Amino acid sequence: MALSVDRGTDHVHHHVGHDQGGKPLIIALLFTLAFSFVEAAAGVWSGSLALLSDAGHMLTDSLALGLAALAAWLARKPPSKRHTYGLVRLEIFAAVANGCFMLWLIGFITWEAIQRLATPQPVMGGAVMAVAALGLLVNVAVAWVLHHGGNSLNTRAAFLHVLGDLLGSIAALCAGAIIWFTGYTPIDPILSMVVALLILVSAVRLLWESLHVLLESTPFHTSVDRVARDIVTIPGVRRVHDLHIWTLSSGQIGLTAHLELDSFNDWARILTDCRAVLDRSHGIRHVTLQPEIKE
Fold it and tell me: How big is the chain by its Cα radius of gyration, in Å?
C-alpha cells in the first residue's frame, strides 16, 4: 500500500485501554472450564443433548480464554535470532485450531439433534433444570468478575463469550423445564441446535479474525487514515507515505512508515512525539519510522 497524506488539520483521538485483565481472565477460565466438564457429565447422565451442547459451548469459550492467557505468556518470551518477533503468532494458529474444533462440534451436535428428533430419547428434565440453573449462576458470577476486571480488548471479548454461555444455560434450563412440565422431549434437541447456532457465530468470527491477522491486514479498530492524519499534525512532519499497520498478536500492533520532514535537526523530538501520539491515540507501540528529506 502506498498511502500518502500531506499535513492537514484533522486530528482524531481514539483511546484504547492498556490494562490486560490477566487475573479476571484466569478466574473466568478456571470456573468456565471446570463447569464445562461438570455439565458434560450431567448431560451424559441425564440424556440431555442441550446440556451437552451448552457444555461444548463453555468448553470452546474456555479455549478462547486460554488463548488470551497464552498470548500474555508468549508475549513475555524474548525474541531470538530465529524468531525476531518472538512466538506471539502461535496464538493465531491456536485460534485457527480452536475455530476448526468448534466447527466439528457444531456438526456433531447438529447430527445428534437430527437423530434424536427422528428417534426421541428419554431425558431427565429435573436434573437438566438443576444443572442448567447452576450453570446460569456460574456464568453470572464469571460475567460479574469480567465486567469489573478491566476494559482491555481481551477482557471485553471474554465478557461477550460469557454472555453467549448465559444464553446457552438459559436454553438448557428451558429445555429441562418444558420436559419436566410437559414431557415434550423433542425440545431438547431443538434447543441444542439453538446453542449450536451460537457456537457457529463465535466460530465464524474467530476464524475470520484469525485470517485477518494472518493476512497482516489493518486491525479492525484502527483507521489508517486517522493514524496518518495524526502523524502529519506533528510539527516538522510534512508528509507520511508507505504506511503499514498490522497485528502481531492480541493487543500488539506493529507500524512502519516513511516520514518526510522539514529538517533532520528535529528528528529526535519528532520521533518522541510520534511514538507518544501513536501510543496514546491508537494503542500502537511497536513502531518503526524512517525519516526523509525531499530534495
Answer: 24
Question: Are 206 and 228 part of one and the same domain?
Answer: no
DSSP per-residue codes, 207-275: HHHHHHHHTTPPPTT--HHHHHHHHHTSTTEEEEEEEEEEEEETTEEEEEEEEEES-GGGHHHHHHHHH
pTM attached to this predicted model: 0.69
Whether the CB-CB separation of 105 and 199 falls below 8 Å is answered with yes
240-287 pLDDT tens trace: 999 999 988 766 889 999 999 988 998 999 999 999 999 999 989 899
Q: Are 235 and 277 in contact (CB under 8 A)?
A: no
Picking from 93-107, 172-186, 269-283, which range would have the lowest pLDDT averaged per residue? 93-107
Domain that holds residue 281: 4-15+221-292
Average model confidence (pLDDT) for the chain?
A: 80
| Gap between the terminal Cα atoms of the chain | 23
| Contact present, 176 and 48 (Cβ < 8 Å) | yes
- CB–CB of 135/39 below 8 Å? yes
**Beta-carbon count within 10 A of 283 CB:** 19
CA dist 89 and 94 (Å) reads: 9
Are 155 and 262 members of one domain? no
List Cβ neighbours of 28 (8 Å cut-off, separation of 6 or more).
Answer: 65, 142, 145, 146, 158, 162
Which residues are within 8 A (CB) of 87 and not within 5 positions of it... i.e. 6 or more apart?
74, 77
The contacts of residue 118 (CB under 8 Å, 6+ apart) are none
